[in-house]
């Protein structure tokens, strides 16, 4: 079985790029299950009903979110849909679910969404404690466990790798929009990469307009971000899993323009 994890969709151009590139990736890798982080898909902040429906038409199996989960109020009309996962360690009582279990090729795949606490400016519970609670809840219910850890600090992500080593099938990072080159399969059998990157404008500052971004850093004054224009790239990872024991066989970075 092959799982395709797609890096943060940035803006509607990122959604279009996914739509354009998905068929050729499917033809080349013949993946079985698709996970997309869509927390920046609507103008860089949040997700709208129309984008959610478009991802459903593209047969995306699971959608994960992050610090901009609530960026568009549309989400409250579909947050209970099983395709969408908001960070599980949001405070107790928040609507939606932080994980779902999906069926694919006679296997059960658990997809868990977590958010980091280092330099994220988001109120959240401890992701390490929360994921332990979830693993206990789903014990014996899933053949494969996949975690999208939406976090700023590489150190926090790497710490999570060691914390979950051998307990989950695949742990990948999102949020920084920069694809890292540290993909590996640990000796205990967990596939890992610190960040799978982004799907959005190539000539940009993590998807945003270059001039507006530079102005913010030069002047230290507020400047409204806007999505960059121009050619887009698609970042992600393909994970191959052994059908017999559900252990990772290979992990490959995807970087298409």
What does this structure look like?
The chain has 257 residues and is an alpha/beta fold. The chain has one domain (2-256): Metallo-dependent phosphatases (Purple Acid Phosphatase, chain A, domain 2, 4-Layer Sandwich). Helix content is 23%, strand content 28%. The chain has five helices and 14 strands. Strands 1, 2, 3, 4, 5, 12, 13 and 14 form an eight-stranded mixed beta sheet that branches. The model has no long low-confidence stretch (mean pLDDT 96).
Biggest sheet record: 8 strands, mixed
Low-confidence spans: none
The domain tally reads: 1
Rg estimate, integer Å: 17 Å
Structural class, from secondary structure content?
alpha/beta
Oligomeric assembly: single chain
Shape: globular
Helical content stands at 10-25%
Under the CATH scheme, which class?
Alpha Beta
Beta-strand portion reads 25-35%
**CATH homologous superfamily grouping:** Metallo-dependent phosphatases
Q: Would you identify the CATH architecture? A: 4-Layer Sandwich
Order of helices and strands: EEHEHEEEEHEHEEEEHEE
Number of strands: 14
Mean pLDDT across all amino acids: 96
Number of helices: 5
């Amino acid at each position: 079985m092959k799982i395709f994890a797609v890096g943060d969709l940035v803006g509607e151009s990122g959604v279009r790029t996914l739509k354009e590139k998905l068929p050729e990736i499917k033809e080349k890798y013949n993946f079985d299950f698709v996970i997309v982080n869509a927390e920046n898909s609507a103008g860089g902040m949040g997700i709208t009903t129309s984008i959610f429906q478009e991802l459903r038409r593209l047969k995306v199996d699971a959608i994960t979110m992050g610090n901009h989960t609530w960026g568009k109020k549309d989400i409250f009309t579909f947050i209970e849909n099983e395709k969408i996962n908001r960070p599980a360690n949001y405070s107790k009582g928040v609507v939606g679910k932080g994980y779902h279990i999906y069926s694919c090729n006679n296997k059960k795949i658990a997809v868990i969404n977590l958010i980091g606490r280092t330099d994220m400016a988001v109120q959240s519970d401890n992701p390490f404690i929360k994921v332990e609670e979830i693993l206990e809840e789903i014990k014996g219910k899933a053949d494969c466990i996949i975690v999208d850890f939406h976090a700023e600090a590489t150190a926090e992500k790497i710490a999570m790798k060691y914390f979950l080593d051998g307990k989950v099938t695949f742990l990948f990072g999102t949020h920084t929009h920069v694809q890292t080159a540290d993909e590996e399969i640990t000796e205990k059998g967990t596939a890992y990469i610190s960040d799978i990157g982004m799907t959005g404008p190539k000539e940009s500052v993590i998807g945003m307009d270059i001039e507006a971004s530079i102005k913010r850093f030069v002047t230290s004054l507020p400047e409204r971000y806007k999505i960059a224009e121009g050619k887009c790239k698609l970042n992600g990872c393909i994970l191959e899993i052994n059908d017999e024991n559900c252990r990772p066989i290979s992990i490959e970075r995807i970087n298409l323009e």
